[in-house]
Amino acid sequence: MKSLVLAATCSLIAFSGLADAAIPAEPRGGETIQFNVYRGNSEFGTHEVRFQRDGEELVAEVSVRLRAGFGPVTVFRYEHDSVERWRDGQLVALEGETLKDGNRFPVQAARNGSGIVSEGVLPEGERHTEELPRDIIPSSHWRGYEEDLGRILNTEHGDAMPVTITDMGMEEIEADGGTIQARRIRLEATLTVDLWYDENGFWAGCEFEARGQSIRYVRQANPAA
Fold this sequence. Notes:
With 225 residues, the protein is mainly beta. It has one domain (2-219). The chain contains one helix and 15 strands. It has one helix at residues 2-8, and strands at 32-39, 42-54, 57-70, 73-87, 90-100, 103-112, 115-121, 127-133, 151-153, 160-162, 164-175, 178-188, 192-197, 203-210, 213-219. A 13-stranded antiparallel sheet has the order 8-7-6-5-4-3-2-1-15-14-13-12-11, covered by helices on one side. It has a two-stranded antiparallel sheet with strand order 9-10. The relative contact order is 0.21. Keywords: Signal. This is DUF3108 domain-containing protein. InterPro entries: DUF6134 (IPR045767).
């Protein structure tokens, strides 16, 4: 089930390979990253990340709504809502809930001393608590991933997810009503996800294969505009 959160929840870091881009350390607040999500050529739902400022903290609100069906009959439904709080480029707290296959999975994580203490519910229904490194990055994708990362925080179940990150270079993708140049990052775990980040460091695209289906994210507008 770790693959599902990685897919469905398809962070701004100055990638060393983006030497020609002026990448901000993090969003200023007030920006929104909004994707239309497609399964094959059919509309599948939406994925939004909204940024606000609360004093010294950056607040990122994530909302995912995915649905597949035949007319009014729903055969697949996925909803994810979470709120991340960041200070000085590090995660301070995260609270969220995922609705998947009729089951709800709450997650809470907060900084505690030298690390992040995360509480969640595993796919089998077992509650767990896990202490993670202070600099752990959540699997919400908007902040990006450095190549030396070995694991990230699973925002669906609250556990550590082993990953391999590969920088695939620059290429042209569909976004913002046209095409843009973006850097492609491949994230490999139980599922392989390709992610794209524009010249300003904002998350710009996402593609993966899940359950024999091709899923594609198309960004609707440039958040920096």
